[in-house]
Write a structure and sequence with these properties.
The chain is of the alpha+beta class. The protein has 3 domains: 15-56; 70-154 and 310-451, MetI-like fold (Orthogonal Bundle), CATH 1.10.3720.10; 179-300, no CATH class. Helix content is 53%, strand content 9%. It is built from 16 helices and 8 strands. It has helices at residues 2-9, 16-56, 70-75, 79-110, 116-124, 131-141, 150-163, 219-223, 316-341, 345-353, 358-369, 371-386, 390-395, 401-404, 407-415, 422-451; strands at residues 179-181, 187-189, 198-203, 231-237, 261-266, 269-275, 281-284, 293-296. The strands form 2 sheets. It has a 5-stranded antiparallel beta sheet with strand order 1-2-8-5-6, with no helix packed on it. A hairpin with a 5-residue loop joins β1 and β2. α4 (79-110) packs parallel to α9 (316-341) and α12 (371-386) runs antiparallel to α16. It starts with a helix and ends with a helix.
Length: 452
């Protein structure tokens, strides 16, 4: 009797299914315990700001009055926002395509280089530079002053090597001293000159740095007599250091101006030309009798070539994209190179044995096989350029900030950079989120497809 009661009171045996169920429940609890801090941070740093921004976009600038969709309507009627959308479109169309193409070309070429690892390291190094530092570097590189901007220094050097530069860009003639300025910037004598005579052409405003080192005093040249069939003269700096001297007259201490182009003009036509010597002297020989005017062409006084306005309204967006390419080309090359290393070599060798050249192998075999990798790189870069902010904000100067603005910078400017309209800024943030989500979904699906 007692044994029967004890048997009936004992718990039923635990089956294998119950043990598995309990183990799974315990595993879920442990997993949730480990994931909970990450979910908490994700909710606090991502989900809550997104939901708050969506709600804030339906209120006015002060955040106290509900305005519905007015911010979204104003967003598409604001010229600055329209320009930001246009610039963002340029970024999305140009930058990812160029980066993917450059990464593909470099990844293929690096395979042929003996020091491939070192080459990859050099190209990938800009990724270690923050966007802030890169922006400062390129802001200096694009500076319009050739003494600061390395690009304009190179452009000016090449230009001056082929076209030269003006001799005395700051020189000018004194008023009432026998020279008049033409509409084209040239100077000519007011009084006619004839063979057998000499003319003295005084200029002022020549900087000490512009005076050549081989310049000699002009007084001895001015004292020479002209032959009957020649017209001669001197171009000199009508300024005596330390004071003194007489205006319009060549003094003993005054320097000649070498390298000045001088022309003899008759009836509106140039009949002779010369270049002044180290003492500023020039001569026109074999002239017919008659009256001539002596002219100093405008090329002597043309301002120096200052290079290209890289950060002007026309070029600011392309040059910022160029800075972005410098940073991210290594990233694209490394990812595509990893995909290239995993390609089946037998397919490539079979194509070469069938007579295909390297271009055909690259175009018809390598690129199609790399299609999934290229797509992932392209979409990742699309997501990245949609939210580019640092480079645009740092490189673009204040006067052209609006010409270079993209959605991310426009959102900041509207919200905090002087606009103080966080309702409109939140609407811009929501627009940016809606543009990024499709690319993110596509990328996630591609990753899941590759895992299967």
């Amino acid at each position: 009797m007692t044994a029967t009661l004890l048997k009936e009171a004992s718990p039923p045996p635990v089956g294998m299914a119950d043990r598995r169920r309990r183990a799974r429940r315990r595993g879920r609890i442990i997993a949730i315990a480990f994931v909970f801090p990450a979910l908490l941070l994700l909710g606090a740093l991502v989900v809550y700001p997104v939901l708050f921004s969506v709600g804030r976009s339906f209120f006015d600038a002060s955040g106290t009055r509900f305005v519905g969709g007015d911010n979204y309507s104003a967003m598409f009627h604001d010229p600055a926002t329209i320009k930001a959308i246009r610039n963002t479109t340029i970024w999305v169309v140009v930058a990812p395509a160029l980066l993917t193409a450059l990464g593909l070309i470099l990844a293929v070429l690096v395979e042929k280089v003996r020091w491939a690892t070192a080459f990859k390291l050099l190209l990938f190094m800009p990724m270690a530079v923050s966007f802030l530092a890169a922006g400062i570097i390129f802001r200096l590189a694009y500076d319009e002053d050739p003494d600061k901007g390395v690009l304009n220094a190179a452009v000016v050097s090449v230009h001056d090597a082929f076209k030269g530069t003006s001799s005395y860009p700051t020189a000018r003639a004194r008023d009432g001293q026998g020279l008049t300025k033409g509409a084209d910037g040239s100077y000519r004598t007011t009084a006619a000159a004839s063979p057998g005579h000499a003319v003295d052409l005084g200029l002022v405003g020549v900087l000490a740095d512009d005076l050549p080192g081989d310049a000699r005093p002009a007084y001895p040249a001015a004292a020479r007599k002209a032959a009957p069939d020649e017209l001669r003269g001197v171009v000199y700096l009508d300024f005596t250091r330390g004071g003194g001297g007489e205006q319009g007259k060549v003094d003993r201490q005054e320097s000649g101006l070498p390298g000045v182009e001088v022309e003899a003009v008759r009836d509106g036509k140039t009949v002779a030309s010369a270049t002044t010597a180290a003492d500023g002297s020039f001569r026109f020989g074999g002239l017919d009798s008659g009256s001539y005017a002596v002219r100093l062409p405008a090329s002597n006084f043309a301002p120096p070539y200052d290079g290209i306005s890289w950060l002007g309204p026309a070029l600011v967006t392309p040059v910022i994209i160029g800075a972005y390419l410098w940073i991210w080309t290594g990233f694209a090359m490394v990812l595509i190179g990893a995909g290239l290393a995993s390609l089946p070599r037998d397919a490539l060798e079979a194509a070469r044995m069938d007579g295909a050249n390297e271009w055909q192998v690259f175009r018809r075999i390598t690129v199609p096989l790399l299609g999934p990798v290229l797509t992932v790189v392209f979409v990742t870069l699309v997501i990245n350029v949609m939210k580019v902010f640092d480079l645009v904000y740092i490189i673009a100067p204040g006067p052209v900030q609006e010409d270079a603005t993209v959605l991310a910078t426009q959102m900041w400017l509207v919200s905090f950079g002087g606009g103080n309209d966080q309702g409109l800024g939140s609407a811009l943030g929501v627009l940016l989120l809606l543009l990024v989500i499709p690319a993110m979904v596509f990328n996630v699906r591609r990753f899941r497809g590759s895992q299967r």
